[in-house]
Specification:
The chain has a single domain, classed as Rossmann fold, CATH 3.40.50. With 162 residues, the protein is of the alpha/beta class.
């Protein structure tokens, strides 16, 4: 069984992430979407919230599973028996970052391949930060994220009544 690890902060998970993961299941028998619990980012959702949103977003998709981890990605890939790490590439600006990650992972363990999937055209502009910004200003994110994620974003950005 060929296992791939698809790591990310998923803050929040978007339809772009889910598209990449589903397409990866065409290549791999099992794809583990793994929420990194200590990314060096300002996070809107806690690790447990991000994991719960991800789990509910993939619950009906065969061969996808969600988990979280708190170690080097390459070490977690080894731990779960992954033969590859999947990453998505939206635009040219992502390339350098993904290239550096791929090179570092190859240095750490050359037996685990990096598989970069180009974003589907309809998701090439989509990132978690774009979704957060739209939601923060009350914009409609319903076509960008699963319904439970849109609801969670509305709750996070709700203006408290005085």
């Amino acid at each position: 069984m060929k296992i791939a690890l698809y790591p990310g902060s998923f803050d929040p998970v978007t339809y772009g992430h889910l598209d990449t993961a589903k397409r990866a299941t065409r290549i791999f028998d099992r794809v583990i979407m793994a929420v990194f619990d200590r990314p060096s980012k300002n996070l809107l959702f806690s690790t447990s919230e991000r994991l719960e949103l991800l789990q509910t977003s993939i619950e009906t998709t065969a061969r996808l599973e969600a988990t979280s981890y708190a170690k080097l990605t390459i070490d977690y890939a080894r731990e779960v028996g992954a033969v590859a790490i999947v990453r998505g590439l939206r635009a040219a600006g992502d390339f350098e970052h993904e290239f550096q990650i791929a090179q570092a992972n190859q240095y750490l363990d050359s037996s685990i391949e990096m598989v970069i999937l180009m974003a589907s055209r309809q998701f090439s502009f989509l990132s978690s930060s774009v979704v957060r910004e739209i939601a923060a200003f009350g914009g409609d994110v319903g076509e960008l994220v699963p319904p439970q994620v849109a609801t969670a974003l509305q709750r996070k950005y709700a203006v408290p009544r005085s």
